[in-house]
Design a protein that fits this description.
This protein is mostly helical and 423 residues long. The protein has 18 helices and no strands. It has a single domain, classed as Up-down Bundle (Growth Hormone, Chain: A), CATH 1.20.1250.
């Protein structure tokens, strides 16, 4: 979990099969134009709050087990790689479901898919609390992940269609800020519950939070006014083929893969690094470490405004430099320095995500929900690999090897953006 900053909202930007639709749309009242109140709705306070809450209620679920991993290692008598599957299972489920959800949303519409997906997450979240084995927990976590693309991919398309062009970056950043705060809250709640009660209680609380967020979104998020329904599966699949032939989109998908690979890899294995000697942190302390995500909640809207001013490539280059600096700081065996490094790394990651997710709409043009679905698929496939592949390096070289891997991946991001992105 797009904006279309570089595009004009006119019929000549759309392919021929949508031309007649646009001629008919031009006959609507002038209030439907880009300067109308409806078009400006995407920047209204209520809409921004709804988008923030939607992002929060989604991401409060996704990474909830990260601070619990060292405890799971003891409870289930499993390796670091095995317990990390409670992180990778929902992430990989997101990757598998995202393209299908994108096609579905291009046919059914935006808001109804978002609400249905938010309701769907609540059940496996609650049932995860009943898990008796590690395998059962992994299954419920996978089912959680299957519903999440119905929110992420569709919200990206909703923002790109409903927001005035000059405010797309900042509106996307508001949604991402909600995901940042939600990601922190899920981890923090889990850490507190595991320390003062037990890990099962965390899933009950988080299921209730998700349901409340669903009701807020249902109430405050307006229905789409600029949604163009794709007529049938053939049209949707045709748009999918066009996306896969678009070099700029393919580059953006690769960058998305890379961004979440690095984020999940670092914030999964840092828990083992800090739980072991000499730090010896428990679940509550590990959950509190994710307070660094709140810096991202502040920085992300700023990065959206910077994105609107200096462009995609420059924003990405600055963000990658921040990530690399932060990761190098984590190699210094001082807890305050490590926390500072994580704060820098997370700030850079969310700036990268704002740039990449915004570029999807710019590069795609039409059928944005399916384009966003593919982006989400590759983005979260990267996250799934980020919780698995560094596990093999951890076994041999520990945290230092994980840092080297992440730095190499950042170099790949820069190379792709410089070669294929156009501001």
């Amino acid at each position: 979990m797009s904006p279309v900053s570089g595009m004009k909202a006119s019929s000549r930007q759309y392919p021929q099969d949508e031309y007649m639709f646009r001629i008919k749309a031009a006959r609507r009242p002038i209030m439907e134009s880009a300067e109308s109140p409806q078009a400006a709705a995407g920047s209204g306070t209520g809409v921004l709050f709804a988008l923030f809450v939607t992002g929060y209620a989604t991401f409060v679920n996704l990474y909830v087990t990260q601070p619990l991993l060292p405890q799971f290692r003891e409870i289930f008598h499993a390796s670091e790689l095995m317990v990390s599957l409670t992180v990778s299972a929902p992430v990989l489920a997101v990757a598998l479901a995202a393209p299908l959800v994108g096609l579905l949303a291009d046919t059914l519409g935006r808001k109804r898919v978002i609400i249905a997906a938010m309701l769907g997450i609540c059940l496996p979240t609650a049932l995860a609390a009943t898990s008796g084995t590690l395998n059962q927990l992994i299954v419920w976590r996978f089912l959680q992940g299957l519903f999440i693309p119905g929110i992420i991919a569709v919200v990206m398309a909703y923002i790109s269609e409903e927001t005035p062009l000059k405010r797309v970056g900042s509106t996307m950043a508001t949604y991402i800020a909600g995901t940042v705060v939600g990601g922190f809250s899920g981890r923090f709640i889990a850490g507190l519950c595991a320390t003062h009660y037990n890990w099962r209680v965390a899933f009950v609380y988080i299921g209730a939070i998700t349901l409340a967020g669903c009701l807020v979104t249902l109430w405050l998020l307006p229905r789409s006014t600029k949604f163009i329904r794709q007529t049938g599966t053939a049209a949707s699949l045709s748009s999918l083929r066009l996306h896969l032939k678009n070099p700029q989109l393919l580059a953006t998908y690769a960058i998305g893969f890379n961004v979440l690979f690095c984020q999940v890899g670092s914030f999964t294995y840092i828990n083992f690094y800090l739980a072991d000697a000499p730090f010896g942190l428990g679940p509550a302390a590990l959950g509190a470490i994710f307070t660094v995500y709140l810096i991202g909640a502040v920085i992300t809207p700023v990065s959206g405004m910077i994105l609107d001013r200096i462009g995609y490539r420059r924003t990405l280059m600055i963000a990658v430099g921040i990530i690399a600096t932060g990761m190098l700081l984590t190699l210094i065996r001082s807890l305050p320095v490590i926390i500072s490094g994580l704060a820098l790394a997370s700030t850079g990651v969310f700036a990268c995500q704002a740039a990449a997710s915004s570029y999807v709409g710019k590069a795609a043009g039409t059928a944005r929900s399916s384009a966003a679905g593919l982006y989400v698929a590759l983005y979260y496939f990267g996250g799934g690999m980020g919780s698995i592949l560094p596990g093999f390096i951890w076994k041999e070289t520990g945290w230092a090897g994980c840092v080297v891997l992440i730095l190499c991946m950042q170099a790949v991001i820069l190379l792709i953006a410089c070669k294929l992105w156009k501001d």
